[in-house]
C-alpha cells in the first residue's frame, strides 16, 4: 500500500484546512480541528482516514456552548464492532462546575447533549457522580478505546491524599454514559513520595495504565516546595519506579500489575519529574513496548527484553498521537479527494 500523505493534501479543497490541529486518533481515523491553534474559537471538526483519503466535515453543534473551564474531545471507532464512529466532547461548565458530555454519531449525523437526552435516573447513576464533583479529566495523558468503550484518567481537584482521593479511570460508552469508575492502584512502599498518573492506552486488546512515584518536593513545575529538597537527602539512594498495569478482560474494575521498571534503568536518573524530564507518549498496539519522550529524544522500552533504544531526536514543541493505517473505505466518511 502507498505511504500515508503526512500533509493531508486530500483536504486542501476543504474550507479552513490550511490551519488544522490533530485532536485524536482511533484505529486508523483522525479527528482534526479546522480552528487550528485558535483556542478561543468554537471547534470545527473533521474526521478523516488518511489511508483512503476519505473525510467528513462534522456539523456544528446546533447550540452555543456555555462558558467553560475546559473542553476535550475524543474519537471512538471500533471497526470490528461497527463501521460508524462517535465523538465524545466533555465540557466543564464555568459556573456550575458540572462536566457535561456532547455526543456526535456518524450513524445519525447529529449531536446530542447529555443533559437533555438522559433520564434523571441516568444522570444520577452512581458512576456519574464524578461529573458533579471536583474531578477533572486529563486528556493530555492519552486515552484508550477497547471494545467500544473510552477509558480516560480522571483526577480529583479536592484536598486529601493525592492517590486515595485522586486518580480514577472512567470507562464511557458511545452514548457518553459512565459504565465504570475505577480507582487506580498504587504501591505506597516509600515515605515522602506521591503516586501520579502518567498514561492510559490500549495494547493487545487490553487497557494499559502507567503511574509512578515522585518525591514530595516535586510539587510544581517551577521548583521545590517550601520544604527544601535538601531535607530529603535520605532519599538520595532511593530508585523511583514506573508501574505498568492492565485491566483484564471481563466485567472487572481492578487493575493488575504487569511490569515495573526503575527510572535509573530507563533514563539513568534515580528520580524524574513527569512533564518536565519525560512523558509517556505511546504504547505499541501489538507488543510490550512503551515510547517515552526524554529531553529531546524519543526512547522505546521493551518490557520483555528490558532493552532501551533511542529512536529519534525531536523538538520540545512536538506533540504525539499513535496512528496505525486502516485501509478499508467507510460509508460514514462520505467525501473523498
UniProtKB/TrEMBL annotation:
<feature type="domain" description="F-box protein At3g26010-like beta-propeller">
    <location>
        <begin position="18"/>
        <end position="212"/>
    </location>
</feature>
<dbReference type="Pfam" id="PF24750">
    <property type="entry name" value="b-prop_At3g26010-like"/>
</dbReference>
<dbReference type="InterPro" id="IPR056592">
    <property type="entry name" value="Beta-prop_At3g26010-like"/>
</dbReference>
<protein>
    <recommendedName>
        <fullName>F-box protein At3g26010-like beta-propeller domain-containing protein</fullName>
    </recommendedName>
</protein>
<dbReference type="InterPro" id="IPR055290">
    <property type="entry name" value="At3g26010-like"/>
</dbReference>
Amino acid at each position: 500500500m502507498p505511504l500515508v500523505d503526512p500533509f493531508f493534501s486530500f483536504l486542501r479543497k476543504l474550507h479552513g484546512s490550511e490551519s488544522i490541529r490533530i485532536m485524536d486518533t482511533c484505529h486508523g481515523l483522525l479527528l482534526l480541528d479546522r480552528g487550528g491553534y485558535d483556542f478561543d474559537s468554537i471547534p470545527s471538526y473533521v474526521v478523516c482516514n488518511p489511508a483512503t483519503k476519505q473525510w467528513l466535515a462534522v456539523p456544528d453543534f446546533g447550540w452555543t456552548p456555555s462558558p467553560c473551564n475546559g473542553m476535550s474531545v475524543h474519537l471512538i471507532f471500533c471497526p470490528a464492532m461497527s463501521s460508524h464512529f462517535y465523538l465524545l466532547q466533555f465540557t466543564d461548565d464555568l459556573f456550575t462546575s458540572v462536566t457535561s458530555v456532547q455526543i456526535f454519531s456518524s450513524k445519525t449525523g447529529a449531536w446530542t447533549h447529555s443533559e437533555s437526552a438522559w433520564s434523571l435516573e441516568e444522570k444520577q447513576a452512581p458512576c456519574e457522580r464524578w461529573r458533579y464533583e471536583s474531578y477533572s479529566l486529563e486528556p493530555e495523558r492519552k486515552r484508550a478505546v477497547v471494545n467500544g468503550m473510552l477509558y480516560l484518567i480522571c483526577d480529583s481537584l479536592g484536598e486529601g491524599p493525592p492517590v486515595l482521593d485522586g486518580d480514577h479511570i472512567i470507562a464511557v460508552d458511545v452514548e457518553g454514559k459512565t459504565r465504570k469508575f475505577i480507582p487506580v492502584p498504587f504501591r505506597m512502599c516509600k515515605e515522602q513520595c506521591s503516586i501520579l498518573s502518567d498514561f492510559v492506552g490500549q495494547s493487545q486488546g487490553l487497557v494499559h495504565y502507567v503511574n509512578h512515584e515522585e518525591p514530595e518536593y516535586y510539587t510544581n513545575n517551577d521548583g521545590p516546595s517550601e520544604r527544601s529538597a535538601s531535607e530529603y537527602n535520605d532519599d538520595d539512594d532511593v530508585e523511583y519506579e514506573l508501574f505498568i498495569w492492565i485491566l483484564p478482560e471481563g466485567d472487572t474494575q481492578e487493575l493488575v500489575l504487569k511490569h515495573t521498571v526503575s527510572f535509573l534503568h530507563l533514563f539513568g536518573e534515580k528520580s524524574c519529574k513527569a512533564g518536565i524530564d519525560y512523558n509517556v507518549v505511546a504504547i505499541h498496539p501489538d507488543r510490550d513496548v512503551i515510547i517515552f519522550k526524554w529531553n529531546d529524544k524519543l526512547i522505546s522500552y521493551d518490557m520483555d527484553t528490558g532493552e532501551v533504544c533511542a529512536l529519534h531526536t525531536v523538538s520540545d514543541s512536538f506533540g504525539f498521537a499513535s496512528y496505525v493505517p486502516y485501509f478499508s473505505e467507510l460509508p460514514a466518511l462520505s467525501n473523498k479527494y
